[in-house]
Each structure stands twice: as structure tokens, then as C-alpha cells.
Write the C-alpha cells for this entry.
Amino acid sequence: KIFSRAAKAIRTAMKFSALSFLAFAATTSAFTLPSSKLSPAWQMRPGMRVQSNTHLDAVVGVVGATGAVGKEVVGCLEKRDFPVDKLRIFGSARSAGSVVKTKFGDVEVELFDQSAAAECDVCFLAVSGDFALEHARAISKSCIVIDNSSAFRYEPDVPLVIPEINGKACKGKNLIANPNCTTAIGLMGLSPLMKKFGAKRVLMSTYQASSGAGQEGMDELKAGTIQVTSGEKEVADHKHFAHPLPFNVIPHIDKFQENGYTKEEMKVTWETRKICDMPDDFPVSCTAVRIPTFRAHSETIVLETEQKVDVKVAQDLLASSPGVKLVDDVHNTESPQYPMPLTATGQYDVEVGRVRRSEAFGDYGLEFFVSGDQLLRGAALNAVLVAEECVKNGDL
């Protein structure tokens, strides 16, 4: 391990020295080298800063990269051109030894080992909460760990981060939690409006795709739909959901709590308060419903504000907010435009639309609808954006 760290330090020093020379030489007429002549590892990437304490090309680890979220993490690293010097993928005994083809080359899946994961500069955990509880803190002693599970979201020493909202919370932290997918999608539209008009209370209803329950959930929806449409059965079989999902909606996600809410619903309450730095008693209420779609969650959000609202100002604000796509043309007679899972699937931005003055709260209320890809904005993309924030703030 000592030799590994020494080699990493030497590699970083050599790259920084070379980049410093190239930056100096580029300012003189005596030396000009087009960036196209440089190998990809030596080219400056957009938004990257040259700092003596920054790993310009990181050793990146992904634990659980063969699962739905893990695959998307790798995909986001590829598409966003994250500065990866080496990608390491860790898995179970079942997947160890298999090869994953990536933009960074063919990567052989390694059997997970805590000390091996700790050799990385940044490690994404796309695994269960129990696994994260067992290993995350140990890995984070020498590596930045970004955990997608719920294991550490409510720990006071662990920041819960949506970079566009509270990215500064990442600074100096080696263990960072990703929020619940529902919270991440909803707050992309909600946060800018709360900052502009203030907030007195938030009411939310969610319509969550089958993939929120993993690949098994999507498989069950597909198989059950075929059972019913083929005439094989009148009501589909079910195993992963409390009731059959095809041609049905189920107002039950996660376990019911003593207060009558499910844990999924309470996650929205708890996480909204933490991410937005709200008091522990700030009123946030949610009803979460599973619907028979494959991917992308949708939400109806009602915001009671402290200040008078202006719908046009709200729409303009959302249109200019990073990570948000305003889709709001309900009076288009040929094709009304509003957020939908069909159009949000596979997209990085959260669609926000149907922005209107609330009939319940009058001039002090807004209602709107959002749709977002929960595997991307609600999980993998947010995690990679957290890592990018760590590059920006100099921690990586």
C-alpha cells in the first residue's frame, strides 16, 4: 500500500510538472503544440484547474458497477469526460473476473477488497446500505467515498449533497452521501423557487417507476403486462411489489412507519430539510405511489411561499437553473408540452412544467410538475457531479 501511494504521488507530480511546462511554453512564440497532438490523458478538460494538490487524472473505483446504478455511474463518467486515469470495478465473487468494456478500456471486475478500494482517489458505492455501513468509513480514510445508499444520509458528519444546491458541503469531506432519487429530482425544481420566494411548507405526491425497485421491478412489470395482455391471466403475478403493478398503481413504497407514512415518504421530508438547511420541524409532506412505467419518476409539488409569487418570474428562473429543463407550454394546441417520464428518460436535466399559481394558497403558493430519470439525476449522475465538485474544490 505504501508503494502504491508513492507511485500515485510520483505520477501526479510528473503530470503536474509536464502540464506546468506546457502552460508556460504555450505563452511563448518559441513553442506551440496543438492540443490535438497530445494524448487524451494530457489534454486539459473544460472547467479543470491546474493545482499542485490536484489529481488531474484520478484512479476511480466503482463498487457494484454491474448493477443498474453502477452501470449508469460508469456511463456518466464516460459521457462527462471525467478525468479518469484508471477505472477499477469491484464486484462479488459471481461477477469477479468478467470484463466490462468502457471508454477507458476493457476493465476486469475485481473481487471487492476494502484495502484495494481504498487505493483509489475516489470510489463510488452503488451497493446496499448494509454493505456501505460495513465498508464505507474504512475506505474513506484514504479515499473520497460517494455512497448511493441511505446508510449515511442522516449522519451529522456526512454531507448529503445535490451539487447545484449545496455543493460547498463537499469541501474537506471524504465520505459524501447521495440523496434518495425522489428527493434529488424534486429539489432540482423546488430549491430555486424556495430561494426566490421563500418557503412555509411543501406538499409532494410522487409517481415512481418500477425501476425504483431495481431490475427485478422492471422485469416483474414486463412479465406481468405480458401475462395480462396475452390473456394468460386476468391479474398479473407479483413478488417484488405488495400488489400486481401492471394496470394498477400502488400507494406503498418501502415500509410503513408508526406515523402512517412510508419510509420512502419520510426520506423526502428528512432529506429536504438537511439538504436545504431547514429546521427539523419545517413542514414537508409526501405521498409516494408506484406506477406501471419502466423508468423516470414524476412528482406533483405544492409550495406555500413567504412572498407573493409571479408565475412568469418562476418560469424564467427555472429555465435558467442548472440541471433543469423548463417544459411548460400547455396552450400549444397541436402538442401541449409538459414533463413526462417518456421524455425525461435518459436525460440529465429534470423536466419542470405546469407551473401555476396555487388555488389553495393564492398569491402565496406555486404548483408544478416534474419528471426526472431516477437512475441518472436521482442516483448516478448526481454522484458523478459530486465527484466533479470535489475536483473543482481541490479535494481531488
Observations:
- The longest helix spans residues 2-26.
- Residues 1-6, 15-55 have pLDDT under 50 and may be disordered.
- The CA atoms of residues 144 and 174 lie 4 Å apart.
- The chain has eleven helices and 14 strands.
